[in-house]
Amino acid sequence: MKSNRSARMNAMHFRVLTARYFRQIFTNPGIFLPLLLEAPILLILLIVVCKADSFTLKAVTDANTVIFLLVVMSALMGILNSYREICKEREVLAREVFGGLDVNAYALSKFVVLAVFGAGQTLILFGGAALYVDFAFASPAAAYPLCWLALYLTNLATVAIGLFLSALLKRSESAILPVLLIIIACVVFSDCVLVLGGAAGYLRYITPTAWGAAVLGKFTGLNGWYATFSRELYGCSPFLSLAVLAAETLLFLFATIACLHWKFRKKD
User: Fold this and answer.
1) Confidence (pTM)
2) Residues 118, 152: contact at Cβ < 8 Å?
3) Is the pLDDT of residue 77 over 50?
4) C-alpha closest to that of 260 among 143, 142, 149, 169
């Protein structure tokens, strides 16, 4: 009976926290405007840089650049949206947790709200790119939703990484260097622009952008254009790539919750 009451209480905490977080965002222009403008601004940059006929002309370098920018921009929005969310509320959170707040509900509410915004941001980014760039998909009915899903899961993975980083640190200022390192890793180990061998090459297997790019690379068939161009992950099943992204998201979300439990372990 006690566990049932506890579960209902935690569910109530989740609903209240989610509603409160949405309200904070929509009533604070300093938070809402960046979330609103990120995707359109990045889309404009992508349109300025990329060529609309890259895929129809099979210009492999230009086409690969489109894929690279899409996955890196999706990851960038995720990490920038989340890396301050917990550490900026550290003092308030401590009081609420020791007053009975469930940290599971707190972390999940942060993730769910950012996931909602991430869905909209990646839809704007990929939808706008699809209107400008002809991806020349062989199976557009499957390719368009699954490529968007790849960008969305890339975004969610970096949201979860950002929340974990925010849970580890006490101040948002301390997160600047780690965030820069994560962004650099998402660029360098995306397996798009740079082809790395040896030990460095294995890091792509844990990099969200590499798996996001793998889905787009698979559906656009870049590996089959020229004998001189080949990316290992572009040959993987899209469902494997999506599963890896989902697993990374869950891993860092659970790590965030575990970190918060450890930080506030004295409550128990």
Assistant:
1) 0.93
2) yes
3) yes
4) 169
